[in-house]
Amino acid sequence: MVNALAQVPASFLYALGTLRKARCRSELRLDEIPAPARLAPFAVALGAEVFVPGGGAASSDSDRSPVHGPAAMTLARSAAAGTSAGPSTGDADDDGEELATGRFILLHDPDGSAVWDGEFRIVTYIRAQLDAEMGNDEMLGSVAWTWLVEALETHNAPYRAAGGTATRVLSESFGTLADRPASIDIELRASWTPASADVQAHLEAWSDMVCTFAGLPPLPDGVSALPRRRRS
């Protein structure tokens, strides 16, 4: 183990340390997942899931109401059924309906990459189901990209060489599954080069973007996002 750590570049270890300092919203569950082995000599990957926030339809605070997308649909169904969409205990097993998923991958090549324009590269993926009105919007791809750019700017996360692809996925069911309503998902695949090895703000920006895809509103001014407490 000591020999293995000695082979890890100091800049990558520093970057890992900044990731651990990231403060993410309580609706987001973030865990380390296996990293791709062929994209770079060193890599770390995180998987994210967003679930219905506590309080659900029973909440009367308009500032915490979802503004679009899967969160709005879920809470609307809960309101119609007269139930709460949020977890009652806070356990991960009781989080309720999943609103969005994503992956955050940090790559590092000590020799640098002309394609990346640097030694680090962040590669991300986000997917969420949308309501029909928003899913059919021709500007949806541009909106999704705007969410990414605005999140990075809001968190003061300097970057360069950004690129990405937004895809709408229409799912229709037939035969014995014909009763299932059609659904539209939005997928965003994006990558960018952070300006330095300090990537804390980049993870925080990305985690906020996943919550935006899920339909959750921004945190009110003056309210700090707290890391989700993991179960041992």
Name its key features.
about 230 residues, six-stranded antiparallel sheet, about 25% helix
Summed up:
The protein is α+β, with helices and mostly antiparallel strands and 232 residues long.
What does this structure look like?
It is a single chain. The chain contains six helices and six strands; from the N terminus they run H-H-E-E-H-E-E-H-H-E-E-H. It is of the alpha+beta class. The protein has a six-stranded antiparallel beta sheet with strand order 1-2-3-4-6-5. Helix 5 runs antiparallel to helix 6. The longest helix is centred in the middle third of the chain and has 15 residues. It starts with a helix and ends in an 18-residue tail after the last helix.
Oligomeric state of the chains?
Answer: single chain
Helix content: 25-40%
Taking the alpha carbons of the first and last residues, their distance comes to: 23 Å
Biggest sheet, spatial arrangement of strands: 1-2-3-4-6-5
Mean of all residue-level pLDDT scores:
76
User: What fraction strand?
Assistant: 25-35%
Largest sheet, in brief, is: 6 strands, antiparallel
**What's the total count of β strands?**
6
Task: Please mark out the parts with pLDDT under 50 across 5 or more consecutive residues, or reply none.
Answer: 55-68, 83-94, 220-232
Structure annotation, total helices = 6
Shape: elongated
